């Protein structure tokens, strides 16, 4: 079988705000930041502590009979549980009380107060726990968008997707493998909205997804205390190697009015992108007025126009970031 090109995500030690903003952030590439102070959560957040301190607030969780969650065939269901009961179940292998099967897997992506409107905020939904987690001050406070609990059963895999905001994913307990793909590989990922249809990234069906092998696979394993910088639009796929607790923090990288205000998840395309995609749909509709060979011909011309434009933009961007001051931080 062909082998997908694999690249380790670069790891940086002893990163502070200045180093992050000068050497890492402008490159717009994922980076593992090791040794940033995340607060007492690193020692405190055992399953027992979370059960005791997290309380009985109801949380909506994903429950799946197999750990590889599949959004195409919906092999999971959403269920509501008290937070303490959820943590108990997610941290055990076999359950005495369950929804689907005694070895079902659990995943929490915490939500805001009004799930349709409010972004998740640990300080609002879990004030007793939020004080244990220090949000790295790597962006301005008015850019903050959300802080989200990511709690998974051992083995739980979340499909490849992108978000539209910059993101620091903190691994507090447990270890997690993260595979990432560049936005420039979007055409090789068989997208359905913000998600890739290639669910089995380790052994993909190449008859169905032949282009997938062209995507460059960036990979890292997060240990407790690690932060992963995931720039907006970078695709990521997570696999919990153990029961684990993470928190991710999204912040606005573009001016605030670029984003859709009705987006509590941080994954709705920016308003201008939505308008452009709608215009494309209208253009495709207009092409339908022509016979097939004309549709094909003018479709190709449209592709060429887009390729020319986006490649020029990307080349200009690459040139501007390659002239940034070089890093004096030691990759670890
Ligand atoms: O850690 C996870 O389970 C998923 C993380 C994620 O999707 C994110 O931080 O955007």
UniProtKB/TrEMBL annotation:
Keyword field: Dioxygenase, Iron, Metal-binding, Oxidoreductase, tRNA processing
Superkingdom to which the source organism belongs: Eukaryota
Keyword Lipid biosynthesis: no
Pathway where this protein functions: tRNA modification; wybutosine-tRNA(Phe) biosynthesis
Transmembrane segments: none
Residue span, JmjC domain: 106-268
GO MF terms held by the record: metal ion binding; tRNA binding; tRNA(Phe) (7-(3-amino-3-carboxypropyl)wyosine37-C2)-hydroxylase activity
SMART domains with a match to the protein in the record: JmjC (SM00558)
Cofactor: Fe(2+)
E.C. numbers: 1.14.11.42
Single GO biological process annotation from the record: wybutosine biosynthetic process
Protein purpose: tRNA hydroxylase that acts as a component of the wybutosine biosynthesis pathway. Wybutosine is a hyper modified guanosine with a tricyclic base found at the 3'-position adjacent to the anticodon of eukaryotic phenylalanine tRNA. Catalyzes the hydroxylation of 7-(a-amino-a-carboxypropyl)wyosine (yW-72) into undermodified hydroxywybutosine (OHyW*). OHyW* being further transformed into hydroxywybutosine (OHyW) by LCMT2/TYW4. OHyW is a derivative of wybutosine found in higher eukaryotes.
Subunit structure: Homodimer.
Family: Belongs to the TYW5 family.
Start-end of Polar residues biased regions: 317-332
Pfam families, per the entry: Cupin_8
Catalysed transformations (reactions): 7-[(3S)-3-amino-3-carboxypropyl]wyosine(37) in tRNA(Phe) + 2-oxoglutarate + O2 = 7-(2-hydroxy-3-amino-3-carboxypropyl)wyosine(37) in tRNA(Phe) + succinate + CO2
Protein name in UniProt: tRNA wybutosine-synthesizing protein 5
This protein's record includes keyword tRNA processing: yes
Natural source organism: Sphaeramia orbicularis
Annotated stretches, region: Disordered: 310-332
